């Protein structure tokens, strides 16, 4: 039996069809990649790079090691008994004297985080060190004469937490812990334990805001999905109206409404529901924060709910009623389960926004209503402790990643519907 020969199919140009198809597919992939490339670059430089920088900064302690390399080298030989030897004082003197003002300023700021008073001592000493020649040692007594804090052992012990270029001190600070001089983890003094309480408060406020948004948003979304078009369009405009108003303007309006001499309390007094001397304190506390954040974030709950409810056929409820179910039973067993994707999407969206909220707690919350975002902003702008700020942000990112993983396991991210 004679063997069969395979005939290769050619294009009109004489190129094998298989090769031509591969070339066309490769061109399509390149074209698609080029179309997506601007978005990928945007995400990389505005999302990936800042997060990477934040996580790096939260564990970086290398700068102070570059400014005081010799000091830390001889410091590690110190047995922590009494004051450091002359060798440590001499190394510190030479490096403070020879370093630039910018280097000393940045390094002393870091030292101040470990022990308050370092910055002023270094700044004062540097001016005095200029008058002392490098050959006029020993320097220990001269340094103590310039500033008595050089004879305080606590300052020298505080340097022990900075001898490594990589540190987890900022993360421990973010949960009210710290290193001692031997780099053992201990509790912060009671008067400085503020972050754990703030974390708890942040979750409490975020959960309450999400709950209230759901309670208020669910009936609104239901009306939007079931009312005739001319009425639902008008209601939709009311829902979207806050998006067309400045956030700052809305917060200021709420401040006018909620203050003790504001609109709400005045109406309550005029109506006789409360006495004038018993006006409610709704501003600069947690209550005011929850009220204002609920109003601001309500549209983020309504829109996902509406997008899901609009797809639920009214025939489901009619069929349940015709089969003898009560309206409440039919709603609970038929309508509610079908709206779960909208509930989960709106809840996750509101919670994620709420947990990192900044401006509303800052303006309305006062001391009692501050959340973790306010501490992040405070350390970024006021104390310039970017390491602690980055650690707080890193913990917040880790928590949200875990919650996202749990949500995906319980609900499934593929079931989310935002519109």
List the helices and strands and how they pair.
Layout: H1 17-57, H2 62-67, H3 69-75, H4 86-98, H5 101-114, H6 118-129, H7 140-146, H8 153-158, H9 169-173, E1 177-179, E2 185-187, H10 195-226, H11 229-240, H12 247-258, H13 263-270, H14 286-309, H15 314-322, H16 327-338, H17 340-355, H18 359-365, H19 372-383, H20 386-410
Antiparallel strand pairs: 1-2
Kindly describe this structure.
With 419 residues, this protein is an all-alpha fold. It folds into 3 domains: 17-51; 66-163, no CATH class; 195-415, MetI-like (MetI-like fold, Orthogonal Bundle). Helix content is 67%, strand content 1%. The protein has helices at residues 17-57, 62-67, 69-75, 86-98, 101-114, 118-129, 140-146, 153-158, 169-173, 195-226, 229-240, 247-258, 263-270, 286-309, 314-322, 327-338, 340-355, 359-365, 372-383, 386-410, and strands spanning 177-179, 185-187. It has a two-stranded antiparallel ribbon. A hairpin with a 5-residue loop joins strand 1 and strand 2. Helix 5 (101-114) packs antiparallel against helix 6. It starts with 16 loop residues before the first helix and ends in a 9-residue tail after the last helix. The mean pLDDT is 88.
């Amino acid at each position: 039996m004679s063997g069969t020969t395979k005939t290769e199919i050619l294009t009109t140009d004489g190129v094998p069809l298989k090769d031509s198809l591969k070339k066309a597919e490769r061109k399509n992939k390149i074209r698609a990649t080029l179309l997506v490339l601007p978005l990928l670059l945007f995400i990389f430089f505005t999302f990936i790079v800042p997060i990477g920088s934040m996580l790096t900064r939260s564990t970086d302690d290398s700068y102070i090691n570059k400014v005081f390399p010799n000091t830390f080298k001889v410091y590690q030989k110190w047995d922590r008994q009494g004051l450091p030897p002359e060798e440590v004082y001499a190394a510190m003197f030479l490096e403070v004297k020879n370093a630039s003002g910018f280097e000393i300023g940045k390094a002393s700021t870091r030292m101040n985080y470990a022990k308050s008073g370092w910055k002023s001592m270094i700044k004062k000493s540097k001016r005095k060190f200029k008058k002392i020649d490098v050959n006029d040692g020993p320097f220990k007594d001269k340094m103590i004469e310039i500033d008595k804090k050089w004879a305080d052992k606590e300052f020298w012990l505080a340097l022990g937490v900075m001898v490594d270029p990589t540190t987890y001190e900022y993360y421990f600070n973010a949960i009210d812990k710290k290193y001692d001089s031997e780099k053992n983890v201990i509790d912060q003094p009671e008067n400085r334990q503020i972050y754990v309480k703030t974390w708890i408060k942040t979750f409490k406020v975020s959960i309450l805001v999400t709950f209230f948004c759901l309670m208020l948003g669910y009936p609104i979304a239901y009306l939007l999905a079931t009312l005739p078009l001319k009425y639902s369009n008008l209601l939709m405009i009311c829902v979207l109206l806050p998006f067309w108003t400045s956030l700052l303007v809305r917060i200021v309006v709420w401040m006018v409404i909620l203050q003790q001499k504001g609109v709400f309390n005045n109406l309550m007094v005029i109506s006789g529901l409360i006495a004038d001397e018993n006006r409610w304190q709704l501003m600069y506390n947690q209550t005011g924060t929850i009220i204002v954040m609920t109003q601001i974030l309500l549209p983020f709950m309504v829109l996902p709910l509406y997008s899901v409810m609009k797809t639920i056929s009214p025939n489901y409820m009619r069929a349940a009623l015709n089969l003898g179910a009560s309206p409440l039973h039919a709603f609970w067993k038929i309508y509610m389960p079908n709206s779960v994707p909208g509930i989960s999407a709106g809840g996750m969206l509101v919670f994620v926004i709420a947990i990192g909220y900044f401006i509303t707690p800052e303006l309305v919350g006062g001391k009692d209503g501050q959340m973790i975002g306010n501490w992040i902003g405070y350390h970024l702008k006021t104390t310039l402790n970017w390491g602690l700020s980055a650690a707080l942000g890193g913990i917040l990112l880790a928590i949200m990643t875990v919650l996202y993983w749990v949500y995906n396991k319980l609900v499934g991210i593929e079931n989310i519907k935002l519109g």
